Amino acid sequence: MKRIINTPHAPAAIGPYSQAIEVNGTLYISGQIPINPVIGKIEATGITAQTEQVFQNISAILTEAGYGFADVVKSTVFMADIADFTAMNEVYKKFYQTECPARSAFAVKALPLGSLVEIETIAAK
Known about the structure:
The chain is of the alpha+beta class. It has helices at residues 47-65, 85-95; strands at residues 2-5, 20-23, 26-32, 35-36, 41-42, 72-79, 102-107, 117-124. The chain is globular. The model has no long low-confidence stretch (mean pLDDT 97).
């Protein structure tokens, strides 16, 4: 059975997609960019602050679905500049210190709304 996850504590979708979908004990979270859900736009300017906002958004969706960071099995990190990898990783490791999920991380030409980082997440129970 498919369950659509939606929370006002994470940004609304900026296109025809859901914040997350849960199917058979697996949660698929759409790529999160650093939109502050309170104001509906990106306010953080650097990679560190933008990555922190992304993780706040992911946390809100995980919580709404009844999951936590310990349930995350895969992350995909997209960055506008691979030179930001180390700074992004410093924030990332605050959320995954042990039993880290599998991960891919790479630079892309551009991200929505001029974001510096986007992270999609898969969690399983």
